[in-house]
Design goal:
- The protein has 912 residues and is mainly alpha-helical.
Length: 912
């Protein structure tokens, strides 16, 4: 439910009444709110609302709190969002839940994105009432998209109270029937209930409101019309000076504030604060909000905050930040005070020096702040770098610290998606950097920025110059060599990258630097893969993983190696081990909070299952995480996998929906070939009756892909079909070269398949089917059998053709590849060859018969009332996997909720 309306119109009052009723009915209620001061700090409304920070004894909340404290070096907003989703799932499993986010107009982007994910999926599966409240302004694009994504039936827009309702409200507040004069004053409130309430209260405090013996409430003195801000100021004027002082300090902390933070910022003890807080509560200015306190209405806090001159506010924020630092407060709470005083508001000039204590805190806190909120880090670090330069690069008494701050700024800019600005900052810092450790970090950031822009060759030259700098320590030289090897590999200098990585590995082993050894081995593995020496890469994985395990800073490299190891096992046709390895690294990535590697693990699983013929599970894997968490190449790859499956299954509309979803991401990686996406696009053209155009697309991609293994087979097949034997022969030669480079079953199958197609040799094609079966590649086996059946029919051997056809149809039917079934039947029918009656029929796409065995099992558990965590525990799956299966079940059964699944199950089983 989305509740909209202007400030004071009654949104909060309405939702609080609903939440109270829900609590009386047995639901648990969680309430968070956006805050104008905290817009750059991710997920504050939900981490506070779900009591993550206040109840660390709960294991799930404790894990999220650990992320917030920086216990793991991860992309914190994305990692915390995933864990918050799991927390909501567990809360709903315990009892029905109401989750409210007030003031969404001030919420950060991560909170809005998570609210949308809950609205799009969780509310269909869980006993969850999700409520958002927002004002009409500011009109941010993310808010407009959120609103447009909510069904109009689930939106409430509160407008002004009718005159009759205003009169009733005034009578209730004043204690009598309002006179004409009182109603005339109340008319100035334009039907806003907060305004009406504050106005009547102000009249009472001023003792100009009286109820006559006849029960009429009338104004007895002078009471001119006043604005809402004026009547709120009037309420505050009646408070004592100590209370007003305390409330101004609280206003710095936001609408909600903890008493412990208030003691730090105000410099008062709890004992001193208790009486002033009680006076403020009695006056209707603050209320209790769970374990915290809150201003009764955001406009009261805004009035207090804006009464302070801007310069005074900035100084007080600085003072509050310093007090919080001295108390050991987390970086997000300190940054919340720093941002209004030294951020982009213009309160402090960008050329003024920054206090040393601010710079010292930034030097220490920057890594965690970048992980927690890179946007906030950019604002603070940009201001620090601009205002803290001297000839020696000394900052706050720390030599070279200016270069370190610039290095952190470049990293933060890269993290917020501005590689151009990051590269500019890093390049400037490199021109003057003296600390070789900072030099390595700057080159690392700069190399990543240039890789995105396709300019890795520029980094290679600069790294060469850096390696020639006098006084370079062995450790720094080794790391620069490892980075150089990475860039050389990126630009296709395979042999040079091998030599450089080998040199880096030797240097790393000599000095005992795990970082260098791990990354150098990673490059050597990639070089082996690019050479086609897949089996030779396996021993290197063990060495690299040993190096990465010894250093906690290499957790990300370890996960990357494990993902690549799983992919390598798949390339060697060891699919069972590959899928198990990918599932294991997925769990490790989820536990570590590395969303980037979690996304890659899911994507690797999808590709492995596509090859192994586990198509239903592949669709679950690629659909499990939203696109906004993924790198553009992963978006294209995942939607490519799903589109390939849907085209083969005879559902081109679904295939084209996936291609459309990947289109914008594809525009950001024009210089890269994503095989699954390219193959899906060619299948689309083929389905539209344009095989020549499909072949042209593949030829263009193969011209830019040195390997192209996953595209060559379809290129040969299409070239033979459209009558371009030269193209088919050139592609077949490439396939045969790959087969000669490594003794791998699927490569031998591919070589036999392509040469058999080109030479119209049924023996080779049937041998290709045998090799594909050994490789565990059912689609390739079915395609080889189809081609063999067709060539046999062309030669008049109809009995053998029918046998091959039956086997092909069996394999296609197991995959539910209806498109392929229809094609092969049409082709063989022209020769009088038809399917045997024993071949399985096509699987249903909707209804209970369309459910996979896993889905049918989960649907039965859902119908039995089991929660997602309970199902996950019983089936040894992750709750995320179960949630995705449930989403697919709802779609296939064409129902909207778990209750509908139970109802449909009851009907099905009672009918049977």
């Amino acid at each position: 439910m989305l509740v909209e309306g202007e400030p004071g119109i009654g949104k909060t009052a309405l939702v609080r009444a609903a939440a109270a009723a829900a609590a009386e009915g047995g639901a648990q209620v969680f309430w968070g709110a956006g805050d104008e001061l905290g817009q750059q700090l991710p997920l504050l409304p939900l981490t506070y609302g779900l009591r993550v920070r206040e109840t660390p004894a709960d294991p799930r909340r404790a894990a999220i709190a650990g992320l917030l404290r920086g216990e793991l070096a991860v992309d914190l907003p994305a990692a915390a969002a995933e864990r918050l989703l799991a927390l909501v799932d567990e809360l709903c499993a315990a009892q029905p839940t109401v989750l409210v986010v007030d003031d969404l107009q001030w919420a950060d982007g991560a909170t809005i994105a998570l609210w949308r994910r809950l609205a799009d999926s969780s509310v269909r599966q869980l006993p969850l009432l999700l409520v958002g409240m927002m004002r009409p302004v500011p009109r941010r694009d993310t808010l407009i998209a959120l609103r447009d994504g909510v069904d109009p039936a689930d939106r409430i827009r509160l407008t002004r109270l009718a005159d009759v309702a205003v009169a009733e409200l005034v009578a209730e507040l004043a204690g009598g029937t309002p006179s004409a004069g009182l109603l005339e004053l109340a008319a100035n409130a334009a039907g806003n209930p907060l305004y009406v309430t504050e106005l009547v209260d102000a009249l009472g405090r001023s003792e100009v409101l009286e109820v006559t013996p006849s029960g009429v409430a009338e104004v007895t003195g002078e009471a001119g019309s006043r604005s809402l801000s004026e009547v709120i100021a009037d309420r505050l004027r009646f408070l004592s000076a100590p209370v007003r002082e305390m409330l101004r300090a609280a206003a710095l902390l936001g609408v909600d504030f903890s008493v412990s933070d208030l003691t730090i910022v105000s410099g008062r003890t709890i004992t001193e604060l208790i009486p002033v807080l009680e006076e403020a509560r009695s006056a209707g200015v603050v209320v209790e909000a769970g374990d915290n306190m809150a201003f009764r209405h955001p406009l009261i806090r805004t009035s207090l905050y804006e009464q302070m001159p801007a310069a005074v506010r900035a100084a007080w924020h600085q003072s509050a930040a310093r007090a919080l630092i001295e108390s050991g407060a987390p970086v997000d709470r300190v940054a919340r005070q720093m941002l209004p005083s030294v951020g982009s508001s213009g309160v402090v000039s960008a050329t003024e020096p920054v206090d040393d204590w601010v710079l010292r805190w930034l030097i220490d806190a920057a890594p965690l702040l970048i992980g927690h909120s890179p946007k906030a880090a950019v604002d603070l670090l940009r201001r620090a770098v601009a205002g803290a330069t001297d000839e020696a690069g000394t900052v706050a008494g720390v030599p070279g610290a200016h270069d370190l701050l610039a290095c952190r700024l470049a990293e933060a800019l890269y993290r917020v998606g501005d590689p151009t600005a990051a590269a500019t900052v890093a390049s400037r810092a490199l021109a003057r950097v003296t600390d070789f450790g900072v030099l390595v970090d700057l080159h690392w950031t700069l190399a990543q920025c240039r890789a995105i822009a396709g300019r890795s060759d520029e980094s290679i030259e600069e790294l060469r110059q850096a390696l020639e700098r006098p006084g370079l320590a062995p450790r720094h030289r080794a790391r620069l060599l490892a980075l150089t090897a990475r860039m050389q590999r990126d630009v296709g200098q395979v042999e040079t990258a091998h030599r450089t990585a080998t040199e880096a590995l030797a240097a790393g082993e000599e000095i005992g630097d795990s970082w260098t050894k791990g990354w150098a081995l990673h490059v050597l593995i990639l070089v082996k893969m690019m050479r086609g020496e897949v089996a030779e890469a396996l021993p290197l994985f063990e060495q690299a993983l040993t190096a990465a395990t010894t250093d906690s800073a290499l957790t990300d490299l370890r996960l990357l190696l494990l993902i690549n190891h799983a992919v390598t096992l798949g390339d060697l046709d060891r699919h069972e081990k590959a899928i198990a390895a990918a599932q294991k690294v997925r769990q490790l990535a989820e536990r570590s909070g590395s969303v980037v590697r979690l996304v890659q693990a899911h994507s690797a699983l999808g590709q492995l299952r596509l090859e192994a013929g586990q198509w239903d599970d592949a669709l679950v894997d690629v659909d499990m995480l939203p696109d906004d968490l993924k790198d553009p190449s992963v978006v294209c790859c995942d939607h490519g996998v799903a589109a390939i499956i849907n085209f083969h299954r005879g559902d081109p509309a679904a295939g084209r929906r996936h291609l459309a979803a990947a289109e914008s991401a594809a525009g950001r990686i024009e210089h890269r070939v994503v095989a699954t996406y390219t193959l899906a696009r060619s299948l689309d053209l083929e389905d539209l009756g344009e095989p020549a155009e499909a072949l042209a697309l593949l030829r263009t991609a193969l011209a830019n892909d040195a390997d192209g293994e996953n595209l060559l087979l379809d290129a040969v097949r299409l070239a033979v079909d459209v009558g371009e034997p030269e193209v088919a022969d050139a592609a077949t030669v490439r396939v045969e070269a790959l087969a000669a480079a490594a003794d791998i079953p699927h490569r031998h199958a591919a070589a036999l398949f392509c040469r058999g197609l080109l030479d119209r040799d049924p023996t080779r094609l049937l041998r290709a089917a045998e090799q594909a079966q050994l490789a565990g590649r059912p689609l390739l086996r079915a395609q080889a059998l189809e081609a063999g059946a067709l060539v046999l029919a062309e030669g008049g051997d109809l009995g053998s053709a029918q046998a091959a056809l039956n086997h092909a149809l069996d394999d296609f039917s197991v995959l539910a590849a209806g498109w392929d079934v229809a094609r092969v039947q049409a082709r063989l029918r022209a020769y009088g060859v038809r399917r045997s009656p024993r071949v399985a029929h096509r699987r249903a796409r909707q209804g209970w018969e369309s459910l996979t065995p896993t889905e049918a099992k989960i649907a039965a558990m859902v119908a039995g009332g089991m929660s997602n965590p309970a199902i996950a525990s019983q089936l040894f799956l992750s709750p995320r996997t179960v949630a995705t299966h449930v989403s697919h079940i709802l779609t296939k059964l064409q129902v909207h909720s778990r209750i509908d699944v139970a109802r449909e199950a009851g009907r099905r089983y009672s009918a049977s």
